[in-house]
Amino acid sequence: MSVAITGGTGFLGLHVVRELLRDRNTPLILLSNAGSPDALGRLISFLELCGTPAGVRDEVPARVTVVEVDVSVSRLGLSDADFRRLADQVDAVWHCAGDITLDGEPAALRRVNVDGTRHVLELVSAGRREPVLFHVSTAFVAGARRDRTAFEDELDPAGGFENAYERSKYEAEVLVREWSARSARPAVVFRPSILITDRPPHPALPAHPLEFLNRWLRARRGLLGRGGPRAGGELPEVRIPGRAEGHLNFMPVEASAEVMVRLSRRPPASGVDTYHVVHHHDVPIPVLLEVLQHLVAVRLTLVPASSGEPAASEQRVVRLFPGFAPYLHHKRRFDDTRTRTALGDLPHGVTVDLAYMLSGLQVTVRC
């Protein structure tokens, strides 16, 4: 069984590839972004950093083929002959590639997330083997409805979206469902929550969402004006709108990849199987705020959205979290009944708390 994967050298994709490599009989095709440096070398470096046995790493050049593609264009940017050859040799396609820029330009997000999905659907439609599609979406297609439980069989835009990223992932899921209904072919949709790791950052590894936010903040520290401790060691206080009783779901990427690959081994039903891939315990918004204030060197205080006109310094802080600030108001849960029913035991032994999150940012806790 030959498996192709887009985004295989991204934050999630690398972990999915590592899980897929556990089956020594599965040849893999990395559909790597055209022009990106040495996809095979990055994969091997990742496996070494993760402690993958040398025997598995040594097999990678023989087991993994790299095909350079551009998901944003038709036929993935390949010639007709190369596209047909690729389509005819795959039994399963994992679509992990995506743009996760929360405040990205809608056109740029649609080009990768929506058009990219459309072009992957072209691939799974063109081959003789009718490969199974495993599409990575996000739990946040649930949109701007902040208080309710989101269920796995729902895909409803009525409540709107917090940002263009969520909308683009919703539109991509719609394409998958329409394709499945039109072709009478099965598809599997995974909806992970916010993926994270406690592994410290490394230049050879892609950034996870909070690390990406940390890099963004470091590049824009000047926007805060006078940050850092005042005389006496106290940090300046800045109010930020949010809900003290709110919570967000963060899922360790290692566990997320394991869950997805285990689910992929189940025979797909007719139509679209959708699975929430989430942690059993949400992170309280006040804990997330502690993480953020370690990054911006100010003391953040949650206040209701109706607490009056924010000061200039407070407006600057909110602008430091583009696309992310609305999540400080969330108090939503993601139902994962289908996932738990399918797998029974889930790899949730890790607690995602303040220490875990700061470890993944290599931030020292201030006493």
TrEMBL record:
It comes from the Bacteria. Residues 5-202 form the Thioester reductase (TE) domain. It holds the Pfam family NAD_binding_4. PANTHER family: DTDP-D-GLUCOSE 4,6-DEHYDRATASE-RELATED (PTHR43000). This is NAD-dependent epimerase/dehydratase family protein. It comes from Saccharothrix syringae (Nocardiopsis syringae).
